[in-house]
Amino acid sequence: MSRKGFEAAAEATVLALGVSRGKDFAGLLAQRCNRERALTELATPGVREDVERLYDALESEAVSLVEAAAYVRGYLAATQRARNTVQVRTVWSGPSTPGVPVRATAQVLVDVIAEARDELLAMTYAARPYPALTQALSEAAARGVKAQVVVETLAGARGLLSGPEPADAFASVPGLMLWHWARGPARRAHSRQHAKLAVADRRVLFLGSANLTEAAARRNIEAGVLVSGGQAPRRAAEHIVELQRLGILQPFRR
């Protein structure tokens, strides 16, 4: 029998929690935990209302906790299978052309950040305050996402960047960790941190020519690709994390 209210509430809760915490939630349901215990155990920002709605639906539609756990686990398994299907789409900024569907860089950047539930990693050369981007990053922080951005520095750019430090563009984002390439002075003159990418939860990767600036996202002609599923997002994230572990990338401090 279809229980649309419960199904919609379960899917919304899994979306809010993400795969890892969603599995934890399914385990709590299987243990027949009540709503108070579940909310205490999850302790995840921004999910209380979704969990409350799910428990309300369980009661109103007479769904047992064991049945709910099975549904959530099945939904998570289907979600993971879908994520392993690789999709590659082109992303552009600038003028559009008739008959060629493209996705605007500005919206794709915001969408990638909005998809993150556990981890967000990004790299940029230049950066300037961009309200849509900083709002998306702040909302990710409120969800409990561990967000990290690698930026170039004025010293590292050696005169090719002007104005404030690129890191200053993210000053208003709570909890955001900033990193930079800690190369020595001899190497700094001949190298730049020029990568531009964003990867959410090691499953969605946006890679392109656009810096994290409003000009790049909305006004310039920029090109990139959006990769969903497969190994590329995971390997990109692993590479950044390994660069951090080796000390090649270091926390940015003034």
| Main sheet record | 9 strands, mixed
* Global structural class: alpha/beta
The helix count comes to 10
**Rg result:** 21 Å
| Poorly predicted parts | none
| Average of the residue pLDDT scores | 89
Q: What count of structural domains? A: 2
Quote the distance from N terminus to C terminus.
Answer: 60 Å
- The CATH class name of the largest domain reads Alpha Beta
CATH architecture of the largest domain: 2-Layer Sandwich
Shape by Cα distribution: elongated
SSE arrangement, N to C:
HHHHEEHEHEHEHEEHEHE
Per CATH, the superfamily of the largest domain is Endonuclease Chain A
Q: How much strand content do the residues show?
A: 15-25%
What percent of residues adopt helix (DSSP H or I)? Answer: 40-55%
Strand line-up across the major sheet = 2-1-8-7-6-3-4-5-9
Short description:
The chain has helices spanning 4-30, 35-42, 48-60, 65-83, 105-115, 131-142, 154-157, 185-188, 214-219, 232-245, and strands at residues 87-93, 103-104, 119-124, 146-151, 177-181, 197-200, 204-208, 222-228, 249-251.
